[in-house]
Write a structure and sequence with these properties.
single chain, 195 residues, alpha+beta, two-stranded antiparallel sheet, 4 strands, 15% strand
Length: 195
């Protein structure tokens, strides 16, 4: 509807927007797809519809997270997001028919590419990713809307260094992306290898 305020981005949409470089590439398509599916589960967890149980152990002073990540549906009710409601319906069916509990590990393997395609299309529809189809000697690309991506990066950086509001999305994105802290240090990022 014209004149209506823009809808806030969901966690998977924010992740997908941040994943795309100005060149329209992502560092690694398979990892990005898996992480997008994980962000979907994260959105359901933030909305208190899902809980993923993992085991944490400590060896030599370092904490490790292990196990397949058993998923527990807390609330199969509507979320207000079409994709999330469809995902919950899938999870309800998967947990009802499976002899073992549904696990995040299996779910992420199965859901990855569908999640990435879905959220790329949603961002393209909103004008936040600009799709350039593949052609002879040219791969398909999704160029992020620079202003939206930069604003999201600024919000994550501000939350990370304590100068901006801290919300669950910013916490997740900051940890995934190694956002620089106030001293300017950050975790290194992989090179642009998806050519």
């Amino acid at each position: 509807m014209a004149g209506s305020p823009p809808q806030p981005l969901t966690l998977p949409e924010e992740f997908v927007l941040l994943s795309h470089l100005e060149s329209g590439r992502v560092h690694d398509v398979k990892q990005t797809a898996t992480a997008c599916a994980a962000a979907e589960l994260g959105e359901l967890a933030l909305r208190r519809h899902l809980l993923v149980r993992i085991r944490k152990t400590r060896k030599l002073g370092i904490e490790f997270y292990r196990g397949p990540g058993e998923m527990e549906l807390l609330d199969p009710g509507p979320t207000g997001l079409d994709w999330a409601d469809a995902l919950l319906a899938e999870l309800v069916q998967a947990t009802a028919t499976a002899p073992q509990p549904a696990t995040a590990r299996r779910w992420l393997r199965r859901r990855g590419s569908a999640a990435l395609s879905l959220h790329r299309a949603a961002l393209a529809e909103r004008g936040l990713l600009h799709h350039r189809p593949a052609a002879s000697f040219r791969k398909e690309r999704y160029h992020p809307e620079r202003g939206a991506r930069d604003a999201l990066i600024d919000a994550v950086r501000a939350a990370y260094d304590g100068s901006g509001p801290l919300d669950p999305t910013c916490c997740s994105c900051a940890s995934w992306w190694g956002v620089p802290n106030s001293s300017g240090t950050s975790a290194s990022r992989a090179g642009d290898t998806n050519k």
